[in-house]
Specification:
alpha+beta, Pnp Oxidase, Chain A, 14 strands, 32% strand
Amino acid sequence: MNAINFEHFSQDALKKMPNRYRARFVNSLSGYKSANLIATQDTNGKTNLAIFSSVVHLGANPALIGFIMRPDNNDRETLNNIISTTHYTINQVSTAFYRAAHQSSARYESSVSEFNATGLSPQYIEGINAPFVEQSQLKYGMTLREILPIKLNNTQLIIGEISHVICAQNAVQDDGYIDIESLQTVSVSGLDSYHRTSRLARLSYAKPEMCSSELNLAGLKIETGNK
């Protein structure tokens, strides 16, 4: 087996990197991230759509999801809409529309809706004042609960509670597991690299001094050996 050559980057080396190089480099360090479109609308009904790779699970009871807003650059339609209406949706990106999802990151004029610019379709349900992305096979409505400022870099953690979930029926397993791979969900690495996924295995709950067993898609132990 060939030896792997490593390169060591000190904190000083990171600081001396050109800005865009450093942004790509550091954004790649956290590995594969979820790709989601966050959809909002303002109090006049104008819609906004933006792709985020910082969406993270915060808890199941209550069902909380967070995401990071970058520093204020006077162009915060997503956050302004969330604050004014308290509603937004999070829509998983799949292979069918990842290019359109990526295009939502372009800096369009405030008068332009990213839905119109990208060709994606808004979808509404009663009880939430924000559109879903019709093309997404797994999406959920959110109600704003808390905004936590992060003073170190002037970002904000936006925390919402799930109010509605819309998911392709065949993806939800009997034990509650959602098979996002069957939905052709994509992941993103760095700032601009999109990936298909390939599941290695589902594993049983880890316990001390006991090896985890492999589970099938339904969450049942896979029996090995002769019966």
